[in-house]
Task: inverse folding
């Protein structure tokens, strides 16, 4: 059973439960921090699932919240123990976006908008190598290879025989026109994109340049949804030095509505597939 435990999701779920207990007690995070002689930021990080939580933390918090049901305490303690196990991605060492990988690994569906590049789950190995090397010019070759391996491993969610990730991606035409690596590599990448778009659980749409201004001009983001109703949806926005995770219902709703506008303004699935295939042919002509 341990191998099937997703520590990121366990930590997040535990944090939600601890927040619920605090709110039932009518206490603020600041009040709890004062009682335990810790910083308010620690309580906040425990509740949002961004910090590893120990069984001692759970015991102390349950004491503050006066939780008398031993079954609840035992359940929370077990979740804390599970949350400290390592996911598959930890075997690759320090991965900057490990929290995101943990969420993606457990997600049922993923909606992605990317204005600049092909999303990681749909990249070829060669495209990923060239993209990472270009985006992180001071990164050692060994670290680039590690990142590529992680990206390829993440793609197993798409190829899984059972319960594959439901992926919906909207791309700006710029992501197809930007020559990452070389034109031959781009042709292979776009042909791969067309191939992947034919999977029943993968949807790819393109917003052409001629569409002009649209709701995605503010930048890339992803919306993750989970099979368990207890796990709220998450909006993920990647940053250079830190990433942003939005979980408030109002924030998720705003990004979801924006995504619906993007889907409506994009070419439909068949038009998008043909559009990508046509650009792939242009790359092929350059390489002959």
Result:
């Amino acid at each position: 059973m341990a191998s099937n435990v997703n520590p990121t999701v366990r930590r997040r779920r535990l944090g939600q439960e601890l927040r619920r207990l605090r709110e039932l007690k009518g206490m603020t995070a600041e009040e709890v921090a004062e009682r335990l002689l810790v910083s308010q930021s620690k309580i906040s990080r425990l509740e949002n699932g961004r910090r590893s939580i120990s069984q001692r933390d759970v015991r102390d918090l349950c004491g503050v919240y006066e939780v008398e049901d031993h079954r609840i305490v035992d359940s929370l303690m077990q979740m804390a123990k599970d949350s400290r196990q390592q996911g598959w991605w930890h075997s690759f060492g320090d991965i900057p976006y490990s929290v995101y990988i943990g969420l993606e690994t457990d997600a049922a569906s993923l909606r992605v908008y990317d204005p600049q590049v092909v999303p990681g789950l749909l990249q070829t190995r060669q495209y990923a190598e060239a993209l990472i090397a270009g985006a992180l010019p001071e990164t050692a070759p060994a670290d680039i290879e590690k990142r590529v391996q992680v990206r390829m491993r993440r793609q197993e969610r798409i190829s899984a025989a059972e319960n594959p990730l439901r992926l919906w991606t909207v791309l700006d035409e710029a992501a197809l026109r930007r020559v990452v690596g070389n034109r031959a590599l781009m042709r292979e990448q776009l042909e791969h994109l067309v191939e992947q778009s034919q999977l029943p659980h993968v949807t790819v749409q393109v917003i052409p340049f001629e569409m002009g201004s649209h709701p995605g001009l503010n930048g890339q983001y992803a919306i993750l949804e989970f099979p368990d109703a207890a796990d709220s949806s998450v909006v993920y926005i990647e940053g250079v030095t830190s990433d942003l995770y939005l979980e408030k219902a109002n924030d998720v709703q705003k990004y979801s509505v924006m995504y619906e506008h993007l889907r409506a303004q994009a070419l439909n699935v068949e038009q998008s597939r043909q559009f990508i295939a046509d650009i792939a042919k242009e790359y092929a002509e350059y390489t002959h």
About this structure: The chain has a mean pLDDT of 85. The first strand starts at residue 109 and ends at 114. The longest helix spans residues 7-25. The radius of gyration is 21 Å.
